[in-house]
Every structure is written in structure tokens, then in C-alpha cells.
Design a protein that fits this description.
Number of strands: 16
Distance between the termini: 31 Å
Strand content: 15-25%
CATH architecture of one domain: 3-Layer(aba) Sandwich
CATH superfamily of one domain: Alpha/Beta hydrolase fold, catalytic domain
Structural class: alpha/beta
Oligomer: single chain
């Protein structure tokens, strides 16, 4: 196994960056640890894993936690992906073990012992170096030393991610020449184009620090537009959840309305009917059993203050826990593993900074102040940056119909029209490519989010796209 990138000899051409790093050591406040073993995983990790903190707001003491895994193919040449998970408030660890990373939990009934991890071969680290970032602050193991630090929103947290990535690359200059992509899914899909645009407007930061930003990729992405919510009705109609009559009445009474905030009584009444019918299925994948979300819930309405944000009175898993047959059961294993003292010591989590790790923290005082990401998509793709937008076609959280609609609204000419893309001799979904380097693809049979349901197909998709090949 080659030595990890941190141990590679630095060429003298990097001397200005090294001096810059030394001069700004205290302001950067990077705390980095190389992890070779993890609780629950047998033997040494077969890949390079690094964890660490980066200070993004010194005044308020905000530090973002990350996991970095180098490519298992060619770390010095393969792209670097910054990965953000949705929510807002869902830990990037979920992306690592549930979606695109090289670890998976062994799904077995929880018996009080630490859940086991195994190597997962269909990881995107087969073709890319990936930074899994806990953002916004209060997500996963990211924290603020002051209560005020937790009060962020779409715009301010995106600026903090920008600060993170600049400092991270200063500390990892050996990756500056690699192609760099901002990526994420679900709610993070709304923020990714904004973050990419912020980076694109200052790719040259002086002192020889030039980021090789090539584009971005988003899965099952939110936009902030009413498109996301409104597309649930035609999708539910198309898959037989609502009838022709209900669909027609919604069209009649809700024309021009925002389905999330209807203004007339008849529209609101019909949308209540639609929501009642949709509630009978699993929104993340309409073909799977309906299951509760496996995240801790409050056991009382008593609030306890801890470093400025609300935490649950008692720690513990959801009640009742999801059935073992549910896909969300593995999220319960995430919870027990990440809250283990031995786990946090192995990951070098700073003691006392996070009272309870949650896969998705719903208690953050977070402001959704980016009303739409469409303009950022248009800005970036018009300037030549590459974009991959993909959707699981069984997702009712952010249906592909709405995603396809806003992609079309950009009005770029079609280069390669709607066609099947294949894996293993079978159709894995459908795709279309536009002249602005934007590719849209569906992943057949996948839900919210696609790699969790179709990992082999999604690895093939990302391998081809990163290699500048047609899907």
C-alpha cells in the first residue's frame, strides 16, 4: 500500500504554500488525524482515512469536522470530491457509510454490543478522493464554542464551506492539481451550486493557491423552487397513488399555486387529500415498506440548553425503533456506533464538543435563506463548468419530474437526446446531455438517495462521468 499523501515529499515548488501554512498555522486551526483502525472493523483499514477539524469562524469558535478518504486507484491523479449530505443537518458520515463510501454496517439486530463494519467495494473512492464534510455547524461532530455560532443559514454556511475548502487545500497542496468537484445530495443539492459559484469567483487565491474547479454534481437535489413540491402531484398520479379525478381537481383548483403554501381553500383541501394518500407509502422509495425515520426523537417537551442549541432531555434511540426489515434500521446502527466512546476516541473527536451525535440534527437554528439555486446552475454551466444531475426514479421526496423540469428551463440546446444508459447489459436509467456540459440522468429503481439503492449502477455512472465519457 503506497504511503498516504500527507507523507509524500513536498517538492520545492510548493515552498510558498508551505511558508504560508506555517505563517497562518494558528489562524487555520487545522487538527488532523490519520485513522488506521476503527471499532467494529476487523483489522487495518484497507484505505487511507483522515479525520480533522477546520476553523471557519474564529470569533465564535466554529469548527467543521471532516472525513477524508483517498482514491483507491490513483490519489495523485483522480478527482477530489467535496461531499455534503442533505437535511440540512445530516452528517456526512451518512454519505460515507450509507451511500458512496467504502464502509458499510453489517445489518444485524442490535444486541447492545458495538455494530460491526465491513469494507464496501462499490465505493466512489474507487475513482475519486472524497472529503465528507459535516456542515452546517451542529451537524455530526462539527461544533461551535459559543451559542451564537450555531445561528447560520444557507448563505452563511456556504461561505463557511468555502473557507473550509481553502484552508483544507492549503494543508493538502499535493491535491491542488487534481480536478475538483463540489458534490452532494438532497437538501445539499440546493447549496452545492452556490458553493461552486463562490469558489469559481475566486479560484486564484494568491500565493500559488489555485483551485482546479471543474464543476459539480448533485443527486436527488432540492432547488428551493416550488417545482420540487409541485412535482409530487404528477409523480403520484403517474405511479397510481392518486386517481385521475383527484389529479384533475388539483390542476383545476391549484393552477399557479405553490402546493406547499396554497392560497385558496379548494386547492388546500385537494392537497390535503393528496398528502393523505401519499402518507400511505414510503416517500424515499415508493416500492419499499413504510418505515419510521431512525433518528432520536424528543422524549418530552422539556428543553435542555447545551452550547446554545436545544438538545434532547434524554439520549436514546427512537421509540419505537424501526423494524429490522426496514432500510432505516441501519441508521439505528449508525447512531449507536457514532455515540460510542471508543468510536469517538478512534475518530479523534474533541471531548465535550458534541453531547449526542445524530445522523440528522433537526434542532439546529438554521435559516433557509437561499430561495432558489436555479440562477447558480445557469451561471456555472454558462461559464463552462461541468454538471451532473441525477435522480432515483422511485423518489417521492424530490421527484425526478421536478428536477427534469428545472433542468429543461435552463434552455440549453440538446447534444445527446433522451436515451437509456446501461450497466451489466441492462438499462440502469435514462439520460440526456446539454450543450452547456450539463448531464441529467435517472437511476432506475433507486430512491432518495440513489447510491443507497443502486450502488453498482451509481459507481458506473460516476466513473464514466468523471472520465469525461458518455454515461
Amino acid at each position: 500500500m503506497p504511503p498516504p499523501p500527507h507523507l509524500l515529499k513536498i517538492n520545492l515548488s510548493w515552498l510558498p504554500l508551505v511558508l504560508l501554512l506555517l505563517l497562518n498555522l494558528f489562524s487555520l486551526a487545522l487538527c488532523v488525524s490519520v485513522i488506521t483502525h476503527l471499532p467494529g472493523f476487523r483489522g487495518r483499514l484497507p484505505f487511507y482515512l483522515e479525520t480533522g477539524y477546520v476553523s471557519v469562524d474564529e470569533e465564535k469558535g466554529v469548527e467543521l469536522f471532516y472525513y477524508f478518504i483517498t482514491s483507491e486507484r490513483s490519489p495523485s491523479e483522480d478527482p477530489v470530491l467535496l461531499w455534503l449530505t442533505g437535511g440540512p443537518g445530516c452528517s456526512a458520515f451518512s454519505g460515507l457509510v450509507d451511500e458512496i463510501g467504502p464502509l458499510k454496517f453489517v445489518k444485524s439486530p442490535y444486541n447492545g454490543s458495538l455494530p460491526n463494519l465491513v469494507y464496501f467495494p462499490d465505493s466512489w473512492t474507487k475513482v475519486a478522493n472524497i472529503i465528507f464534510l459535516d456542515s452546517p455547524v451542529g451537524t455530526g461532530f462539527s461544533f461551535s464554542a459559543s451559542p451564537e455560532g450555531y445561528y447560520v443559514g444557507d448563505l452563511s454556511s456556504s461561505m463557511q464551506v468555502h473557507s473550509f475548502i481553502i484552508k483544507w487545500f492549503i494543508d493538502h497542496p499535493q491535491f491542488l492539481s487534481n480536478p475538483f468537484y463540489v458534490s452532494g445530495d438532497s437538501y445539499a443539492g440546493k447549496l452545492v451550486p452556490l458553493i461552486a459559484q463562490i469558489i469559481s469567483e475566486g479560484t486564484n487565491y494568491g500565493n500559488d493557491l489555485v483551485l482546479n474547479l471543474k464543476g459539480y454534481l448533485i443527486g436527488n437535489p432540492a432547488t428551493g423552487e416550488k417545482i420540487d413540491q409541485n412535482s409530487k402531484v404528477p409523480y403520484a398520479h403517474g405511479v397510481g397513488i392518486i386517481s385521475d379525478q383527484i389529479y384533475e381537481l388539483v390542476q383545476r383548483h391549484c393552477e399557479g399555486e405553490d402546493y406547499k403554501h396554497p392560497c385558496n381553500v379548494l386547492c388546500a383541501k385537494m392537497l390535503d387529500t393528496v398528502e393523505e394518500l401519499i402518507s400511505k407509502v414510503q416517500k424515499t422509495n415508493i416500492l419499499e415498506p413504510k418505515c419510521p425515520r431512525a433518528s432520536p426523537k424528543p422524549k418530552s417537551k422539556v428543553e435542555r440548553m447545551y452550547v446554545g442549541i436545544r438538545y434532547r432531555e434524554l439520549l436514546g434511540p427512537p421509540e419505537p425503533p424501526p423494524s429490522f426489515k426496514c432500510r432505516t434500521y441501519v441508521h439505528l446502527l449508525n447512531y449507536y456506533w457514532a455515540n460510542s466512546k471508543s468510536t469517538q476516541e478512534a475518530l479523534h473527536v474533541k471531548k465535550g464538543t458534541v453531547r449526542e451525535w445524530q445522523r440528522c440534527n433537526d434542532d439546529l437554528p438554521y435559516t433557509k435563506d437561499l430561495h432558489s439555486s436555479i440562477k447558480h446552475h445557469l451561471n456555472l454551466t454558462s461559464r463552462g463548468y461541468r454538471a451532473l444531475v441525477y435522480s432515483g426514479d422511485h423518489d417521492l421526496v424530490v421527484p425526478f419530474l421536478g428536477t427534469q423540469e428545472w433542468v429543461r428551463s435552463l434552455n440549453f440546446p440538446i447534444v445527446s437526446d433522451w436515451r437509456s444508459w446501461n450497466f451489466g447489459g441492462q438499462s440502469a436509467g435514462f439520460t440526456i446531455t446539454y450543450s452547456n456540459n450539463m448531464t441529467f440522468a435517472t437511476v432506475k429503481g433507486a430512491g432518495h438517495t440513489a447510491p443507497e439503492y443502486r450502488p453498482k449502477e451509481c459507481l458506473a455512472m460516476i466513473r464514466r462521468w468523471l472520465s469525461l465519457k458518455p454515461l
